[in-house]
Structure prediction request, 926 residues.
Amino acid sequence: MPDERRAAGADAAPPQGPPLDRRQFVQFALAACGTATPVLVALTRLPAARAQEATAAAGAYDPTEHLYGMGIDISRCIGCGRCVAACKAENDVPLDAHHFNTWVERYTITADGGVTVESPNGGMDGFPEPEADGTLRRTFFVPKLCNHCANAPCVQVCPVGATFTSPDGVVLVDEQYCIGCRYCIQACPYGVRWFHPTKRVAAKCTLCYHRLVKGKVPACVEVCPTGARIFGEVEHGATPLSRFLRFNDVQVLKPHLNTRPKVYYASLDGEVR
Amino acid sequence: MQGYIYPNEFELQWGLLIVLYPYVTGLVAGAFILASLERVFNVKEVQPTYRLALLTALAFLLVAPLPLLGHLGHPERSYEIFLTPNRQSAMAMFGFVYAWYLAVVLLLEVWFEWRKDMVLWARQSTGVRRWIYTALTLGATDLSERALRFDDKAGRWITIIGIPSAFLLHGYVGFIFGSVKANPWWSSVLMPVVFLFSAIVSGIALVLILYMVTSLIRARPIDMRCLDKLATFLFYAIIVDVSLEALDFIHRLYESEESIEILAQMVESRLFISLIVLQLVLGTLVPLLLLGFFSPALRTTGRSRGSEELRRLVYLLGALLVEVGIFSIRWNVVVGGQLFSKSLRGLTVYKVELLGQEGLAMAAALLALPFFILWGLVTLLPPWPEAAPSESAAAPPAAPGAPAAPAVR
Amino acid sequence: MRIPDQVPRLAIVFVVAVLALVAARSLLVPATFGDFGHYRAAAIDSIAHREVRFAGRQECEECHDDIGAERVSGNHRGLTCEVCHGPAESHVEDPFNVLPEPADQQRRLCPLCHQYNPSRPTGFPQIDPVAHNPLKPCVSCHDPHAPVPPQVPEECSACHGSIARQKSLSHHANLPCTTCHTVPQQHKVTPRAVRASKPAERTFCAQCHDAVKPRIEDAPQIDLQSHYPRDLCWQCHYPHFPET
Prediction:
């Protein structure tokens, strides 16, 4: 096709402008690259060369000295929902029934093996009695929260680097940088992320990072009446979590996905997803 | 809502606009692949659609980022994808794949294809139009045999590069979904491949429709050999696409993983109309029957059945149904993936708004926009043979010392 | 050989575009990006400086040490002050001008934990708010800082409500818990430290259910020697609701 359309002419007019020799072009190109390269290098190095004053100024807290995790003892949870309420108060989470950093589920397993799972308003107002009291086989509460995975799929998929794992093992969201694409919400297997309706960025449990840097524990751990939530260090140190991990057979949620969660459940039932 | 969903899953995060984006980039990739059939694989019959396919791809590509921008929580920060792309994120590739495809493939291809005509139109027109055409040529007004041969060779090479680029442009969208291990409806090795082949199907169907419609508007006869060939390719493409989808389906049923129950429930209840009726029956089965019966695809003689008028009607109907079907595929993938809970215990609903940022009106406007852009493009760079510039203007205005004889066909 | 003049013209356009992108990048990438990883390190700071709402029990006990002393050995020692008194960081920062919300003095707060629900782990003290002293504020009998029941509960159902309710539906309904379990008095004071006993041998259930020497005519009877002689009765039969 192209041949048919092109002018057949060897008698086409000569080209406009001075002819460009190949050697001249190559010389020009090399010269251009030669001058451009150091300029480019200098420009790209600028951001990395800035000092790290901002983070050092945070005070005596050194994030590299910590690696946080949480334990949940299912056999102690009474489903009172104080953790859900405290988290919403501490972190300004919208009060409606569709946005939770943490929530409590109630599993009801009947004698025929049927499983019912509920979480009315995230468990914040407690739970009614389950139906079918007579044929109950097992029933229990399961608190859920962000697992702060060591191999977090949400961090992997963020296109711009707005969600990240801090040096102390907490997965956080940079509200000023997030573009609100919600890929991280799709990638989280545990459903712990949500879209902030007014800030229009992704949001989730921060393990109350602003409390951790002051030596406090997360709000949900603070208020739990029965000690069902245990907080501490995953690796070093003598913390309540160390004891919890020593004396309990712990599991994580969805281990087959290899997200390596840092929230460990004791007495976790096989029906929990 | 029935069963149990995680409390945060009540609202769907990716809605109508995100359904639209893979649809639009699919049309781009498909139209370009069709154009490459002619340019690289020398399928002469579809030549009348070559330039139209290029402009169609360009028009839709220009619109492609808009649904994404409309969906973002902070579109004013979208430039961050170019600044600090996370190399581990498939979505971060968008900026570069899109920029590459727009600049290096489509714009360059269009430029080389139309350069000669732009130079001639520049000489033949006056005022603003002349200025526009001159600017577009970037001053490369050499129309010598060598220059034109270079244009042709460059165009061919760009198309060759463009084919894997088109695969990448749409395949990466499939990878965005297929790599999400958290979602059993999306997580699949086949996802990029299915996306790509359904894109090819939709692109061929779109060019078929546009060719027929523009011929009607221009009151020009339709080249039936071209149309039959398009219909044949469309048929083959649907066969490949439906085979891949059938493979995915059979594989899912056979392995019968934990998610199979909630997914089956979802297909039977929430997705019945969009999947069974629209995607499978109307979008795949009926076009297959129509095209298989009427086009030369299944005939050893290569001749088609039915009068020209009947075939045109059948092809148009088939292509329109195909477009509905491919849109349904995008809907079923994007929305379907969010209608069931990751606890695998319950389903939720998607409420489409009429107005609003992700409403039907916005989606309709975004779908209509490329056609307006295409209209602008065919006005500026007409792809029709009858709009080709007259060759008598091939000679430049009298330059000192230049020979006077113009090129004449 | 001559390069067609399309090439340098296009090359210029591309080079200009790339340089523009690089320049934009150097200007627009945030200062702290990349310090610790692929993110803005300054974000950690912004998050670390969010407002604290719950002070934590240590802060409460710095001033309210008397109440702290009361609580330390009581049943509510694990329950932090702010669960009932609300977030109090603003009170800690300005104690005399900002007071915490008064704790609920009616019956709205206590049933959140203590209302009977079979999903709660067994042994947790629970009451039925409808039947248990209706309308009377909980604090009129129970000191919330060191709660003890005004009388030691006679019924095991005070803490083992789920078991009691199931048993009440079964043929064992009229058997008091003490039929099978020996309950030291201390169990009602420190339940986890001192436990009630459970039967250890098949011969225990055989006291009623052995066909050879039955005590109860109506009770289902088995031959102790031949009926699954290697197993303990409760490995198959749930004593609190044997019909299921």
